[in-house]
Amino acid sequence: MKNNKIILGVTGGIAAYKSADLCSKLTAAGYDVHVIMTASAQQLITQRCFQTLSRNPVICSLWDVPEWKPEHIELSEAADLMVVAPCTANFLGKYTHGIADDALTTTALAFTGPMLLAPAMNSRMWAAPAVRENCRILTERGVHFVGPGKGRLACGDDGVGRMSEVPEILEKIKQLLPLQD
Ligand SMILES: Cc1cc2nc3c(=O)[nH]c(=O)nc-3n(C[C@H](O)[C@H](O)[C@H](O)COP(=O)(O)O)c2cc1C
User: Are the beta carbons of 8 and 83 closer than 8 angstroms?
Assistant: First the structure.
């Protein structure tokens, strides 16, 4: 059996458009990508975009369940790696504190494999004590991080908070889940 199944969580950060490119490059590299979008992410980019790029159905709601077994539980059991890119301050908070109120946070809580987060937010949000503390706790639990980088932010500020560029995220994914021939 191939170990190439990735859950790609997309949250409501403006960098969600970069996540479409990440999805495309992961699929092209040979990963089996299953996207879960939050409600906020769906305000910024469409389900159809990820469905086409991943060639798999996209989960947008906990309640959209065609099979007897909820998809988020099935996916959390089957996946080899979970990546959340972009990862909002909101997701960081919920994941740290065990809140499961949508398909993505519920899947994240049920998933026991390696987790990679690519945070993206305004630099003052990134510097906020609550966010710093959440990152510290998650790092202690063995969660992997890539970025954020420094540079021009969508809000007009310049600082730390930019989501890492796709090649850097891809590299980290390949380290955590090398593709087997
Ligand atoms: C246009 C727009 C861009 C946003 N970008 C970000 C962002 O980059 N990072 C972030 O943490 N929140 C951002 N937010 C706020 C989140 O969308 C908001 O906190 C939301 O509750 C996140 O929900 P989610 O984590 O379930 O996707 C943005 C909001 C808007 C309206």
Answer: yes
